[in-house]
Amino acid sequence: MQPRDEIVGLLQELVQNKCVTPPGNEMKSITTVDRFLQGYGIQAEVFESAPERGNLYAEIKGNDGPSLMLGPAHVDVVPVEDEDSWQVPPFSGEIHDGFIWGRGTFDMLFIVSCQVVTFAHLYRDGFEPNGTLKLLIVSDEETHGRFGAQWMIQHHREKVEADYLVTEIGGFPVANNRYAFQYGEKGDCWLRVTTKGKEQHGSMPFASDNAVVKLSKVIQRLAIFPQRIRTDYVKILTEKMPISRFTKWLLGKAIFMPYVLRYLERKDPAQAKLLHAISQMTISPNVTQGGTKTNVVPSRAYVDLDIRRLPGQTVDYVMDRIRHHLKSLSYDVNVELLPIPHYEPIEGNESSLNSPMISAMESVLKDIHGVKAELVPLFSPGQTDSRFFRNEFGTDAYGFSVFDDRMSGNELIAMPHSSNERVSLGTLDLTYKAYKSLVTNLLG
Question: Is this structure's pTM higher than 0.85?
Fold first, then answer.
């Protein structure tokens, strides 16, 4: 059987397992991976972190040397809000027009499948690493990793410590012969902002103290939050980009960023979104609730904010700035961390840009896409499980795969959590080849 056939079959089963977080139930897919590895005689270890949730670990141990982890690769996926907006059923794993479609195919079940098949084939071929090759498949990445990567670090630290790791996201084109890899990511700080009013009958709203009306003014006020722009991550991104010196200079000046973003909003919206996200703290009011009945003026309303912060921006800094910005409103507003169980804000972090791992990835990339291909460092607006390993072990953790030319970089950036999520069959071939070469380059 060809590698692609194995990868496709595994990927389809993972999609069809429908391990949506919440509740997760990822043990279905952990069992799928374990069964596949058993077919190669690999005795992986499966750890149950909660009922129907778990993680899988396997290793190929060789001589003394560095450790490289394939993963952590997560098998949980986000929900589908509107199945009617999909061209194919979102949990079918259907192959159509040269792509495999389904929720989680891009984020990140195709990487899970490629890494598992790569590990199995290296084991079958008798690969003896100069060090240790590790495989870690986890649950719960989409809801902060408490039962996945974080749980494994807390309970099996000695197994999952690694010098290097490769996971999501990366390998997509951002310009001619330029391909992004993820070396760091923003932190989060999810807040709830609450307004209070006074209940009364909705039939006489004149001069009422309506918490929802107050909340609407809070949201409007947050829409004009004054941002403090930083261009350090923009400069790193654009350093190797094939653009003029003047454009690089312009993008490196915080004072010009608002004008650049307004221009790109019309010309290249996807690029504008990315530059905006990596140059400043972002605030997105995503969940609102207020009132209990249509004919009752509400006494309480709240909005939940998804705030993504750059490294160095502490939780106290974020909350102080939000409170100060809302202070001009003529009523009390309560600002607190999102009151959900076990939530802890995540700190942004990054790995070295002078790592042997990056040299190995670039060598692999040139073998596949030609000698003119170069890697471009991307500081990610979103979060991955890499953060745990950077914080705990100082791991050189990077997001890397290799995409074919079926979709543009802008299309790929917009793919996670979207309708019609899919990955091309050619990308499966290239990513498998890349991972196998990466392992042999680093540990061969």
Answer: yes
